[in-house]
Amino acid sequence: MFHYLDLLGVIVFAVSGALEARERGMDVFGACAIGFVTALGGGTLRDMVLQHGPVFWVRDSTYIVLVTLASVATFLTAQRHTVPRRILLIADAGGLAVATTIGVQKALAASVSPVIALLMGVVTGVVGGIGRDVLCNEVPLVLCEDIYATVCLVGAILFLALRATHVPTDLASPIAVAFMFALRVAAIALNLRLPAVLRGPWRRQEWPDHGSNETP
Predict the structure, then answer these.
(1) What is the largest CA-CA distance in the chain?
(2) Which residues contact residue 79 at a Cβ distance below 8 angstroms, ignoring those fewer than 6 apart?
(3) How would you class 24 by CB atoms within 10 Å of its CB: exposed for 0-12, middle for 13-18, buried for 19 or more?
(4) Is the pLDDT of residue 122 over 90?
(5) 23 versus 30: which is more confidently predicted?
(6) Using CA of residue 164, residue 51, residue 151, residue 181, what is the dihedral sign?
(7) What is the C-alpha separation between 138 and 82, in angstroms, rounded?
(8) From CA 57, how far away is CA 55, in angstroms rounded?
(9) What's the pLDDT at 195?
(10) Distances from the Cα of 107 to the Cαs of 14, 50, 123, in angstroms?
(11) CA-based nearest residue to 120, from 203, 213, 31, 43
(12) φ and ψ of 146, to 5 deg
């Protein structure tokens, strides 16, 4: 189940990346490139940091094949049909939930502390999306008020708490995935956002330029 859950997360992230690329007017190569970054970016950084053998897609080329097929299929589908942006966000929510859970599990398998496992879960969940948004010339969702990285953090804590109470991994994983997906979708549907401290009346005021020769 662990392996199939990982493959599912990669496919969903590839779909969200290809949809974003198509929305930006890129060609099929661009869709595949953005799909690769979105689907594999977080896991690649995680494996490099953990130094727990070769990066996952180097060990198993199935990931490369699936990302390519998912990106091309998504691009061709989007050519014929308009895909609402909300579908992209929901697809991303699914990838976020699965990737975060997989990241925590792989970190624990590398015998690191729960704190590092928590961090690796967040990294696995958000880094691919950051790469996608940067390449598509957008401010990454994780840097906005959107409840995004918070979903990873809370979901990873839930998974670790379940494992600490001896809940089997095969049960803890789908619970954590379902919780994160539901939380992210609820945030999208209800437009839930974290407060931004430098907005509106709280924005830092501009000080006058005392070196200016202009008269008031």
Answers:
(1) 73
(2) 22
(3) middle
(4) yes
(5) 30
(6) negative
(7) 20
(8) 6
(9) 66
(10) 22, 7, 11
(11) 43
(12) -55, 140
Token pair, residue 209, equals 């330029």
Q: Around Cβ 203, how many Cβ atoms within 10 Å?
A: 10
SS3 60: coil
Structure confidence by residue, pLDDT tens digits, 96-112: 898 999 999 989 988 89
Model-level pTM? 0.80
Considering only CA atoms, which of 159, 172, 164 is closest in space to residue 121?
Answer: 159
At 49 the pLDDT is: 93
- Least confident span in 113-127, 148-162, 200-214: 200-214
**Residue 95: which of 191, 161, 185, 30 has the closest Cα?**
185
The pair of structure tokens assigned to 43 is: 């896991």
